[in-house]
Amino acid sequence: MRKSTLIWMFLAAVASVLLFHTSQQVLEKRARVADLSAATAREKESLHVLKAEWSYLNQPERLEKLAAENLDLTPATAEHMVKVADLDAALAAPPPPAKPVTKAVPQKPKPKTVVIKKPAPPPPARPKQPAIKNAHTATPGDFSALMSNLGVRR
Known about the structure:
Number of strands: 0
Oligomer: single chain
Shape: elongated
Largest sheet: none
């Protein structure tokens, strides 16, 4: 075989290896794009679920009912109202107490004491709350289940 034939065969082999490598990179990038598209769709669905939950939780009737059950609120009456002048008098700082005049008596130095701090007790156990499903793992069919769990009727 001639030398030029070997060179052309070598160049063809190099070109085929480069073409194969490039096609593999394209396949990997397409798979990455598909994964990102699926992740974007999942995030959009979870956002939709969270917006629905937010609108349910912020319904004025529901908040009013919860406030009535959990807060001890009463309507404001005339006794609750004060004049601005009364506020100034009530909020004025009291004068500092007068210091008594005493003779300086030399005092013995106090012995140094060592304070040993005990570790703080562990915080009290929190009551278990019902588990909330992670919105990122929610599937499109979970929306109706979520709303029924929250007590929303259609």
